[in-house]
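SAMPLE LOG
Freezer: B-3
Tube label: C17
Construct: single chain, 227 aa
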Amino acid sequence: MKHVITPPNTPVLPVSGTQNTFPVRRVYCIGRNYAAHAIEMGHDPDRDPPFFFQKNPDNLDPSGDFPYPAQSVHVHHEIELAVALKTGGTNIPVDKALGHVYGYAVALDMTRRDRQAEAKKAGRPWDVAKAFERSAPIAPIVPSSVIGHPSKGKIQLLVNGTERQLGDLDQMIWKVPEMISYLSDYFTLSAGDVILTGTPSGVGPVQKGDVMEAHIEGFETLTVTVS
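STRUCTURE (predicted):
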């Protein structure tokens, strides 16, 4: 049997310090996972069950360039820790979850805030706001064999040299092992899956020409220019 069209390329991400790449299968994103961010978005930060949305694998972009998307005039930055899985499964126990992690990366969940507000008001999905082209700038993945499993450390975003977001990984409401376990109750996780773990407070708009510097303690800074 032959394909009726040429199969699309599998999106891949660079692995830090190597010539290797990490093939991406799915991208899961957790919402409102830092209490201060939940409050600034008008929500209760209590530890309710987590909720997730998805971006597309090819939304992950290691180029360092973020093209300002059409059909929006209010686009926000959200710095996040990305988790890349090497194995998966269902009903993964919390105490076994980190054994499925290949590595971590600094990432941005860029959001069409105007389109998200419209979707929320109408009770519609967030796809247009979250899953648009190149909406997730990301740094090379650092293997857990190199970086360990970071559970605390400064997470910070600067725009044109001015601090916008500041928090600590230990402020996550749902920790990485809990996210992996919870997701595996609803989806069959697999090698190649990437999880974006939420953002601290201070999200705000960017404009063409802005330079974003995303930093998580222990990682190299991800620098992204808005074009």
